[in-house]
Amino acid sequence: MLPEGSYTSAIALELNRLMNDAALAQPDAVDSFADRLLRANRVFVAGAGRSGLMGKAFAMRLMHLGIAAYVVGETITPGIAESDALVLGSGSGETASLTGMAQKAKRLGASVLLVTVNPDSPLSRLADETAVLPAAAKDAAPGSGTTIQPMGSLFEQGLLVFYDAVVLKMMERRQMSGSAMYGSHANLE
């Protein structure tokens, strides 16, 4: 249920919540993710549902940076190997399909990086690096005051903001401007 007032005030409330959550995120996680991804031979990105859509946006930006990036499950995605990195976005940290991917990536010598709400999850235990976002859980009780948004929306929005922060850090490390990324932008549109 929306708070008393207009949709504009509801949006402002949720943007404020997203900003507060971003301020609570682990400050070193962005640096660490950026460094690991810059050292990786190739980067594979996965998530289920809307978290997967945020991952696709992240993979696109990595490609714009000149990183060999792939979305798991796409027809042109090659096999993962040693010295590659698998980036997973999972609010619960318990998604079975992602757990299977992480296990296989580890067996093949790739590193696993996770963004989640749950630091004590099966995926967190498998990951080489975990960034914890303090977003509302998907199963937050209606009216709990945690968020007015449905399901995992707050996590998914925070996930996109986190991924974009990693991209900005990678741009800084490579001394690259946003305009330089247009050289890799799609041109058959």
From TrEMBL:
**What is the superkingdom listed in this entry's lineage?**
Bacteria
Q: Where is the SIS domain?
A: 33-176
Q: What class of enzyme is it?
A: isomerase
| SUPFAM superfamilies in UniProt | SIS domain
Do you know which PROSITE patterns this protein is assigned to?
Answer: SIS
**Can you name one GO molecular function term for this protein?**
6-phospho-3-hexuloisomerase activity
Q: Read off the InterPro entries from this record.
A: PHI/rmpB, SIS_dom, SIS_dom_sf
- Signal sequence extent: none
What are the EC numbers? 5.3.1.27
Record flagged with keyword Isomerase: yes
**Record-linked CDD domains:** SIS_PHI (cd05005)
Its keywords, alphabetically, are: Isomerase
For this chain, the family text in UniProt reads: Belongs to the SIS family. PHI subfamily.
What is the name of the protein in this document? 6-phospho-3-hexuloisomerase
